[in-house]
Write a structure and sequence with these properties.
Length: about 210
């Protein structure tokens, strides 16, 4: 089943996705299908159930989808947990109950402060070789989402600083290496979608062939 097939198979509840997102997601998530994996989904409650079903159908029966939204209940392989990600106790409870996430997808409010806060709170617990997706980043240019061209306090403005941070080892300690530069191997910027790839075994040496 393709992600698009999973999307169209959900007949109750609304899901809205940009068409080009489907192929991007499939490129990164193909290796997670039909094997155990944990997905944390940041999403507003009215869209949570439908989108969680889509991801469960695409990833397969061994996946566990945890919706970080209103409500506290379990529906088969889908769980709903309500809490404040700024609360370290809530994060610890999530990890104790479900384990660290392999995948995080933020399709929540798209407001910059909430998107950035969610990333800063979950970034450190994503598994090695995991993925973090942030959707609808074009809202960084929209007034009604507190955005505008060149505004540094949007998720895209924030990510521009992270491009420097991922190169911390090359800045002569102007940016000291930190958890982000050690744990994130790459940042992929698409029209409307950010993808962070995690992995701790990057060999930064420069070598010659003689």
């Amino acid at each position: 089943m393709s992600l698009y097939d999973a999307f169209t198979s959900v007949k109750s509840g609304e899901i809205e996705k940009n068409v080009h997102f489907f192929s991007i997601y499939e490129r990164y998530l193909a290796s997670y299908r039909h094997r155990p994996c944990i997905l944390f989904l940041i999403i507003d409650e009215p869209h949570a159930q439908a989108q969680a079903k889509m991801w469960a159908r695409y990833l397969g029966a061994f996946s566990k989808i945890i919706c970080l939204t209103d409500g506290n209940r379990d529906e088969g392989q889908i769980a709903f947990r309500n809490g404040n990600l700024d609360d370290s106790t809530f994060k610890k409870q999530l990890i104790i109950e479900f384990g660290a996430p392999d995948i995080v997808i933020d399709d929540g409010s798209h407001l910059p402060e909430e998107t950035i806060s969610g990333f800063e709170n979950l970034n450190s617990i994503v598994k090695n070789n995991g993925l973090y997706f942030i959707e609808d980043t074009y809202t960084s240019y929209w007034d009604n989402y507190k955005g505008s061209l060149g505004e540094p306090r949007t998720i895209l403005g924030y990510t521009k600083d992270l491009i420097d941070e991922i190169h911390a080892h090359h800045t002569g300690q102007e940016i000291p290496p930190n958890a982000f530069s050690e744990n994130v191997q790459s940042i992929h910027i698409y029209d409307g979608l950010l993808v962070f790839e995690y992995g701790q075994y990057l060999d930064r040496r420069s070598i010659k062939n003689f």
